[in-house]
Amino acid sequence: MGSSKTQVRIPARLHICRFGVTMLRIFWWTTLIATLALVVAAFVMLPHDWPAWLGSLAAVVAIESVIFWIGIVTVYLTSVQLGLRIRVIGVVCGWIPIANLIALRLIIRTVREEVRFETAKEQLNQSRAAERVCATRYPILLVHGVFFRDTNILNYWGRVPAELERNGATVYYGNHQSAASVADSARELAERIRQIVEQTGCGKVNVIAHSKGGLDMRWAIARENVGKYVASLTTINTPHRGCGFADYLLGSIPKGVQHRVEASYNAAASRLGDSNPDFMAAVHDLTQAGCERINRIIGLDSFPGIVCQSVGSRLLHATTGKFPLNFTYPLVKWFDGPNDGLVSRPSFPWGDRFVWMEPSGDRGISHADMIDLNRENIAGFDVREFYVGLVADLKRRGL
């Protein structure tokens, strides 16, 4: 008996992206062919038949312009992977001969790879839809790091939550302030966990916490009596032993400058919704001295009855990190060694299991890459599939 292949349903955005790439490829090749044809025709038609040649040139320019602008506007409006850098390159180089062709090839290659990658993801998700691989017993609580808030406009976790939900997960957010001491953030998170449990009757939550969020959750479990509501805690790139780089900055930057930065941040954070932001308290708790104090109070051991695990990653070069991580990476490397642009490897491990992320290639994975903050498809590291695998493992454990 033969079997028919299931038709993959491709989102409209990818269809439009593919159309845009097709138009740009048509422009590339027809422009090349037309240019060669016009050059050959010039030897035959000029100068005696110049009006006909000039008319042909005008027709070619008009037709190719229409094809080009349809293609470029389409991919600029629908592509995610072009990003700001490639878009700027396209605009700047668009007026420079030869450079514009090189930029166009970069745009075509980037969007074509995006269509291929996203189509493959669609196929994967549709093939396992019935399995609901991320439908854990307890819902997922995503806890953000410092200097960010959970908003609907720009999701801190990028495309990850939608991928988890598509594969069966129920996702909640910490909704705590962007900057506060570990103790204060822990109190907010403890209240949020109680709220979720009481309102949904879920009993417990599986917590995935990034950066300082991991410290906040450890304190919440140890000191705010919410351990009975937590089935698992997975920390992502959390500085469990602090950042030596932060100690250096606090010792090097004049107090007056620190106070001005603190006042500016707290004022801005208040306008954005923080009820009581405390920039310097958050920064001090991320230093090695601050984490040493925190660990003396709550300990570094796993919590009985809770699955405790941690993840860390390494950025390999400053140039492969986005601002400001491309600036901080060499400084953190100088003080702390291999790092993700902010946190060094010795600071990551915690719990009963530690996963070290260092894919093949020369790019590595930054602090921001681990939460898909830039929505970038990275060769050798599918961040969305990483979280699907992480949550699917929680489901296999009965959590």
Structure description:
The chain has 399 residues and is an alpha/beta fold. The chain has 2 domains: 12-126, no CATH class; 133-396, Rossmann fold (3-Layer(aba) Sandwich), CATH 3.40.50. Helices cover 53% and strands 8% of the residues. The protein has 13 helices and 6 strands. It has helices spanning 12-45, 50-78, 83-93, 99-127, 160-166, 182-200, 212-223, 244-252, 255-271, 279-285, 288-298, 325-336, 383-396, and strands spanning 140-143, 171-173, 205-210, 230-236, 307-313, 353-357. The protein has a 6-stranded parallel beta sheet with strand order 2-1-3-4-5-6, sandwiched between helices. Helix 1 (12-45) packs antiparallel against helix 4 (99-127), helix 3 packs antiparallel against helix 4 (99-127) and helix 6 (182-200) packs across helix 7. The longest helix is centred in the first third of the chain and has 34 residues, at 12-45. The chain is elongated, with a radius of gyration of 26 Å. It starts with 11 loop residues before the first helix and ends with a helix.
Which tags fit this structure?
single chain; 399 residues; alpha/beta; Rossmann fold; 2 domains; 6 strands; 53% helix
